[in-house]
Design brief:
Layout lengths: L3 E6 L2 E6 L6 H15 L7 E5 L2 E5 L4 E2 L8 H14 L2 H4 L9 H13 L6 H16 L9 E4 L8 E3 L4 E3 L6 E4 H10 L17 H21 L11 H13 L1
Antiparallel strand pairs: 1-2, 2-4, 3-4, 5-7, 6-9, 7-8
Amino acid sequence: MQTHDVQINGDLVRKRFVDGKPGGAEREWRALVLLAEHAPGLTPSPVEYGTDLVVMSRIEGTPLFLLPAVPEKELVEAVDRLHSAVPRQVLDQVPQRLWPVERIRDQLLAWAGRWQPKNELADQAVREGVRWLSRWEPGEHGVRPVFGAGDGNTANFLWDGVRVRIVDFEESGRSDRATEIAEMAEHVSCWVHGESELRFELDSAEERRLLECRRLFALMWVFLLKDEGPRNPPGTFMRAVGRALDRLS
């Protein structure tokens, strides 16, 4: 399902939001303006903003999910730069990312309430997930506020042979470092064709929050992939189930 229509005209990209969800263009524009000031060159440059429309510069690069091997060092550098770019006094004024972890937890519990039995392992993952979610309170322990893209899809990270740059900020906003790293680590695009563990510098409290958030996102993919379609290889759903069980154990 497409959430926007993208047209490329020379050095410009016109991205029109067509899914009817409010705020996507505003979040994208806000991110491009902030990062053009605080992390120039990391993202496209903002050119024009209108109703459900963002025009930005075109940047070259190959999406990471198309590469035979991920440039791990450069990817970590790009994510670190994104997270550290926006000064705290500015970040405090930025709205939260579209899906904060509390909202994801509540959504997963709602989905679990409507779960239709699939198979023994999938049903076990949902049961164990519900038990954990019902007692998990994210709180503020281990939270380091950062500007987050809000989307760990490796299609949004472009490699030009020298550096990694980032596109697609329609779900972006104020977040925390452990949540953003967890979302990337558990995103289906990061493990469906192979897997590598990226190493980020985190303190002990952030490491604990990272593990909790990885449980959350791994469980989320069980629900998102339950009606397996042609986009991913056969067996992707059961791989997601196995990952969720591993995280919950």
